Amino acid sequence: MLRSKRVALVMGVLAALSVAVLAGDGFGFKCEDKDCGFKTTVVFGGGMLFEQATGWCHRCKKFQSVNWTRKGAPAAKVVPPPPPLAEVWNPGLGEVRNIYKCPGCGGGFMEVRKPGELTHCPACAKPGFKVDPDAPRLAVD
Ligand SMILES: [Zn+2]
Ligand SMILES: [Zn+2]
Question: What's the gap in Å between 121 CA and the centre of ligand 2?
C-alpha cells in the first residue's frame, strides 16, 4: 500500500515536470488600435516532443500551425516535417522563412518564429500588434 502511494507521488511529480519541459510558448497578442483591439494567442516553436510552425493565414483570417515530431523525440507515432511550399527571403527580416500549406484552407502561410517578428496587426494591418502585458503567458503541451 505504502509503496503504490509513493509511486503515485513520483508519477505526479514527473507529470508536473514534463508539462514544464514539453511546453511551447504561447503569447497573448493585442492590437493597440482602439477601434480594432484584435486579440489572439500565438504559440511559437512547439514543445520538447514536437516542433511547430505558426503563421497568419490571410484566407482563414486566423493563425494556423503545422506540427511534426521533433528529431530524436521518443514518440510512438512519428510525424515527419511537412515539406514547405516555398522558402522565401523575407525583406522585413532579412532572413529566409518557410511557407507552409495551411491546414485550414490549403493556401499558404509564412512561419513566424518569434514574438518580435509580429509587428503589424493581421486584422487591421496597422502597426502596434504587441504581446499583451496583461495576458497570461501560456505553456502549451
Ligand atoms: Zn488558411
Ligand atoms: Zn488591429
Answer: 5
Determine the distance separating the centroid of ligand 1 and the alpha carbon of 18, expressed in angstroms.
Answer: 32
Cβ–Cβ contacts within 10 Å for residue 63, how many? 18
Q: How far apart are CA 121 and CA 139, in angstroms?
A: 23
Domain that holds residue 102: 2-140
The model's pTM: 0.77
- Give the number of whichever ligand sits closest to the CA of residue 107: 1
- Ligand 1 geometric centre to CA of 8 (Å): 43
C-alpha grid cell for residue 17?
A: 515536470
Tens-digit pLDDT profile for residues 14-58: 555 444 444 567 899 999 999 999 999 998 888 888 899 999 999
How many angstroms does the Cα of residue 61 sit away from the middle of ligand 2? 12
**Domain count along the chain:** 1
Contact 65, 51 (CB under 8 A): no
- Distance between CA atoms of residues 129 and 115, nearest Å: 10
